[in-house]
Amino acid sequence: MKKIKPICLIFILILFANCNCNNTEKNIKNQELVICSFGGSFQESQRKAFFEPFEKLTGIKIKEVNYSGEYSKIKAMVMSGNVDFDIVDVELGTFLSGVKDSAYEKIDYKKIKIPGLMDVAKYDYGIATDFYSTGIGYNKKNSSKIPNSWKEFWDIKSYPGTRALRKNPYTLLEMALLADGVPEKSLYPLDVERAFKSLDKIKKSIKVWWTTGQQPIQLLTTNEVDFTSVWSGRIWSAKHSNNLSLEFSYNQAFLEPEIWVILKGAKNKENALKFIEFASQAKQQAEMTKLFGTGPVNKDAFKYLDNTMEKEIPTSAENLKKQIMVNGKWWAQNQDKIAEKWEEWLIK
């Protein structure tokens, strides 16, 4: 066997190294993450605060999809074993239902570093991405007498105007009970029968049952409705980004976190964890708050926000006093039977 000359050996090693580097670079560029969120201006803000900076930093391509928060879609995907999404932004009730059904991958906190992450944002099977509120939204140009509680929202005679509500029982049952006189401290466990009887009283006055987060903004700006339930960030974005005369009431609004989860069987689990780590950093959290008015989950994010900004977000000291924390545990335990009753109520 002929010996390889030293100079030839060096050349081969260099060539091999270059091939490996090129392949590695190619593999990184070919990697992608599929992230599912709630669409509209909210997801546009996530794109600017999280998706695009992460792509630039890592070379990992993010493919976006959106949904309306249906847990059934997540559950069916995981149970079938045909998992198309890597990461999903979920509401608290959906999160707890998925934990119960083993639908999410466990978060390995040993593999990530997130200085300043609040303890309330840490879960075994997910990490909160923001805090948001669901409350009453209105166009101040069109409304002279504005409901400031759910009892007033239900009172069509005293507070005339067209209404819209979300086509989902989640937090809607709580609104109905408050409208019927149930004290805030006595909401849970929810009296389901009483809630649906309260909904009967307003059902005929609901002009639109909205299904996407951006829809209430469109309804208010086109004057199709005067008052609607709405997510706080949507109002904030429309008000500040588009200079619209929309307002949000934090009185009796429902506060909760949204949570990043990695679906069980996700094809890009490691990169999904890297993304969540990145999106949870203080600067990225502050950027999302500036774009959409969400409450950050990283306490160090407040270093990058001014006092005026703080006052307008769900987790400011003043706004926290006015709100009700959603009992996600109750919803996780009762979601399936409520969903069935809800569908029956809609068609009757």
- Tally of helical runs: 14
CATH architecture of the largest domain: 3-Layer(aba) Sandwich
Mean pLDDT level: 90
Give the class from helix and strand content and strand pairing: alpha/beta
The major pleated sheet works out as: 10 strands, mixed
Instruction: Tell me the strand percentage band.
Output: 15-25%
Measured between the Cα atoms of the first and last residue, the distance is 88 Å
CATH C-level name of the largest domain: Alpha Beta
Poorly predicted tracts of residues? 6-29
The coarse overall form would be globular
- Rg for CA atoms: 24 Å
How many strand units? 10
CATH homology superfamily name of the largest domain: Periplasmic binding protein-like II
**CATH topology of the largest domain, what is it called?**
D-Maltodextrin-Binding Protein, domain 2
Structural notes for this entry:
The chain is of the alpha/beta class and 348 residues long. It folds into two domains: 31-131 and 257-316, D-Maltodextrin-Binding Protein, domain 2; 132-256 and 322-347, Periplasmic binding protein-like II (D-Maltodextrin-Binding Protein, domain 2, 3-Layer(aba) Sandwich), CATH 3.40.190.10. Helices cover 45% and strands 19% of the residues. It is built from 14 helices and ten strands. The protein has helices spanning 6-30, 40-58, 71-80, 92-100, 150-154, 172-179, 192-202, 215-221, 232-241, 269-279, 282-292, 307-311, 317-320, 328-347; strands spanning 32-37, 61-66, 87-91, 122-123, 126-139, 163-166, 206-210, 227-231, 246-262, 324-325. Strands 1, 2, 3, 4, 5, 6, 7, 8, 9 and 10 form a ten-stranded mixed sheet that branches. Helix 4 crosses helix 14 and helix 6 (172-179) crosses helix 7. The radius of gyration is 24 Å and the shape is globular. The termini are far apart. Mean pLDDT is 90; it is low at 6-29.
